[in-house]
Amino acid sequence: YIGSSGLSQLNMKSFAFDLSHAPECSLQNSFVCCRIYMDYNATTPVDPEVVRVITDALTDAWGNPSSNYLPGLKARDIIYHSRDTIARMVGGKAEDIIFTSGGTEANNLVFHTAVEHFRKSKTSAQGDTNSKQLNGRGSLPHIIISSVEHDPIKLTAKHLLKEDLCGLIGPDWVLVVDVTFVPISKVTARVEVEDVIAAICPTTCLVSIMLANNETGIIMPIKDICQRVREVNKQRAASAPRILLHTDAAQKIRDGNPVDGMFQFYGPRIGALFVNDPGTTTPVYPLFFGGGQERNFRPGYDMVYCMVGFCMDDELLNRIKTSMLLILKSILLLSLYFSELRTHTWKILNVFCGNLVMCSHFLRPSHILLSCGIPYHVATNALRISVGRCTSREDVDIVVEDLRDTVEQLERMN
Amino acid sequence: YIGSSGLSQLNMKSFAFDLSHAPECSLQNSFVCCRIYMDYNATTPVDPEVVRVITDALTDAWGNPSSNYLPGLKARDIIYHSRDTIARMVGGKAEDIIFTSGGTEANNLVFHTAVEHFRKSKTSAQGDTNSKQLNGRGSLPHIIISSVEHDPIKLTAKHLLKEDLCGLIGPDWVLVVDVTFVPISKVTARVEVEDVIAAICPTTCLVSIMLANNETGIIMPIKDICQRVREVNKQRAASAPRILLHTDAAQKIRDGNPVDGMFQFYGPRIGALFVNDPGTTTPVYPLFFGGGQERNFRPGYDMVYCMVGFCMDDELLNRIKTSMLLILKSILLLSLYFSELRTHTWKILNVFCGNLVMCSHFLRPSHILLSCGIPYHVATNALRISVGRCTSREDVDIVVEDLRDTVEQLERMN
Which of residues 6-45 of B touch A (CB under 8 A)? Predict the structure, then answer.
């Protein structure tokens, strides 16, 4: 149990001891008088204007969007406007936006589409003499991702690889993929364009590299990768599948350059996949089947109450775009490491983070930081501090002061 | 364009003519002074108490549920309590509830699980002498559904069948299923237990029959089907897969008898799948991969703002349970059919339904009504009227009066 007296009045050593016996949720019982949110990179508070429009929608737009009476028409109107706003956000057409339940689903839809796309390409190329190169291990759909992707990308890839390793499917290629995890540069923490291009083989059907990393804020060279992959596609044999390009843009919305897969900032969570002419220029193979919503690319009841947060005018849109850039540019990664206190440091950080400052820390060293070449013991004690548009200069001063106190106390104990 | 004068003052014939040229959404421009909602079976308004808790959650519980600071802890608390409420609603354990984005996803998860379950059973039975019976067409996973299932069930089944018909996969059994659509009785509009049991074959891996029909309100004999299928499972050869049982309970929540797949009434839409000991007693194979939410059975960010509508006390829970039964028992199906006006009747109904009374009508005859043996022309002009807990006796009187006026006008024109 954590007392109500605040971090500075506690004896650090006994405190760490107490925490180790306390259930994780005991923080809930603590009296918190001063809390500063600095974890905008994990999630953002909901904008009061968004709360207002959602409340209105719950009262007025509760109808089935396919019905012809007012609460349904209002719901339909919300879907139309949200789609339009997102299209303007990414610089695409409204028809190119497919709403999903979130980024995880959007990313899984992309992987599923890539595998199906490969399967259909292979079927249509049957009888072609070039298709001989697609035998053995080389007949698996091949996917390229970076080694620092977000979980929904990394784990989907690993799951598909594991299916293969389990040997449950045998020599069948339908449900398995071959994946190349392109490492990032230890200097720039970015994937190198040349490394991505070098990984391409005749069975490559998808390149999926995140737009900006969620832990380091590093922006990947997506534009250059797109250009180079397009050149490869032009020179490809007719029997090889076209390489689809995808970027998980959960952390950043790119101006004027369409991307697919994003979260909503300063609103409730929902996903949207941007696809260039879905079903015609770019294939989309749905994950579910049902009532025809989202032109059958993603059926299921429309999440009107989440979408409504997107119904915004240009001024609010610009404000939010600027705020998103601010979040990315503002990530500060710190690591407090003292050899003697090794096992307890994270618990002390837990109090620093959980009680006074709300920011992200890691119980296990983040695979992303390790990929950047950061030593294990430093990565274990990393803190991620990120500011947003509600953060004031005073907030930053208080956090810096508090962090200095924590470090001093740790040093004294050392 | 529809004028503001209301149905009773309009000349029916010219009106029908006008409507045929008007875009579908022109109703939006009409001034509507008196509207009575009688389509509770399609969707329900959001309870004001639910609007309040959602607004509170948007303001206070916007944190990532896995974080340790207050807005995250509040989100975690909402997830915990919603799961508990639903478990009490269906008479199951909290651990048995898997939240999804809606009924469509929940139903698709069940089909995906059944096919994977069959695949793994077949793999583990390899070498068994009884597995010889699983050759040729008989090696496909077999699924039994009723002929009047809701779209997410019917279309998923049809999609899996179509994959087979396209011949794109060839003789591979991984992605294809064999489906039996059990017809309903023309007398009771129910599936007969004996018909379901008779359809079972050695490759049957799933029986999915809806709890209550969304158009007729007819409740299916799920309890008896469950009991009989359990007996079949007991007598099955070790090489045959256990038959999984599923019921789409979008229309009714069953007391004390666990079911899986339901929508939320009087709140925003969300899905929940009830599974008896998921991953141990009953297999669950996820559709997506990602950040570990819902114990990896359904990863993806938690829809806290939709779940919060489930955080209710026993009194509200009982009120809503009673209301759900009321909706089911209150479905009234009417058909206004006049041979001369055949092509225009639905447009007149559109006004009756869309302008004064909000209820469901069908542009094409419903396959469910046709399955019940209702003639094509009668099914085409069917109206579904359903009341809910906000419907007053006065509302019913007004609608009956208005319906009588409409019929009289139609008769005069005939």
Answer: 24-25, 27-28, 32, 35, 37, 39, 42-45
Q: What is the mean pLDDT of residues B355-370?
A: 69
Contact: A51, B51; criterion CB under 8 Å = no
Q: Which two tokens stand for residue A161?
A: 């690889």
pLDDT of residue A40: 78
Burial of A338 (0-12, 13-18, 19+ CB in 10 A): middle
- Closest-CA distance of chain A to residue B226, Å: 25
Q: Out of 3.90.550.10, 3.40.640.10, 3.20.20.70, 3.30.40.10, which CATH number does the structure's domain A54-313 have?
A: 3.40.640.10
Is residue A264 less than 8 Å (CB to CB) from chain B?
no
Q: B77-310: what CATH class?
A: alpha beta
- Does the pLDDT at position B72 exceed 50? yes
Q: Does B187 touch chain A (CB under 8 A)?
A: no
Tokens of A211: 């737009």
Q: Taking CB atoms and an 8 Å cut-off, how many pairs form between chains A and B?
A: 215
Cα–Cα distance for residue pair B69/A350, rounded to 1 Å:
10
- The pLDDT value given to residue B134: 40
Interface touch A70/B35, C-beta < 8 Å: yes
Does the beta-carbon distance from B299 to A104 stay under 8 Å?
yes
Which residues in chain A show pLDDT less than 70? 1-35, 123-138, 162-176, 250-269, 309-363, 410, 413-414
A388 in contact with chain B, both atoms CB, cutoff 8 A: no
Residue A358: its pLDDT value, please?
67
| ipTM higher than threshold 0.90 | no
Q: Per-residue confidence at B200, pLDDT binned at 50, 70, 90?
A: very high
Which residue on chain B is closest to A101 by alpha carbon?
B101
Question: Is the pLDDT confidence value at B21 over 80?
Answer: no
Candidates B55, B58, B101; nearest CB to A101? B101
Nearest in space to A41 (alpha carbons), one of A398, A280, A313, A382: A382
- The span from the CA of A388 to the CA of A38, in Å, is 7
Contact criterion met (CB < 8 Å) for B292 and A64: no
Residue A27: list chain B partners with CB under 8 A.
68-69, 73
User: Under an 8 A CB cutoff, do A70 and B268 touch?
Assistant: no
pLDDT for residue A25: 27
Hunting for tokens 């396919």 — which residue is that? A66
Higher pLDDT, B96 or B314: B96
Core vs surface per residue B180-212: b (16+ CB within 10 A) or e: bbbebeeeebbbbbeebbebbeebbbbbbbbbb
pLDDT averaged over every residue in chain B: 71
With a CB cutoff of 8 Å and minimum separation 6, the contacts of B42 are: A64, A67, B360, B384, B386
Tokens of B128: 């068994």
DSSP for A41-88 reads TT--PPPHHHHHHHHHHHHH--S-TTSSSHHHHHHHHHHHHHHHHHHH
Domain boundaries, chain A: 7-33+330-413, 54-313
* Residue A159 touches partner B, C-beta closer than 8 Å: yes
Q: Are B207 and B196 in contact (CB under 8 A)?
A: yes
Residues of A in contact with B28 (CB under 8 A): 70, 73, 77
CA of A299 vs chain B CAs: smallest distance (Å): 7
Structural fold of domain A7-33+330-413: Aspartate Aminotransferase, domain 1 (3.90.1150)
Residues B266-270: what's their mean pLDDT? 61
Q: Report, as an integer, the average pLDDT of B198-213.
A: 90
Helix (H, G, I), strand (E, B) or coil at A22: coil
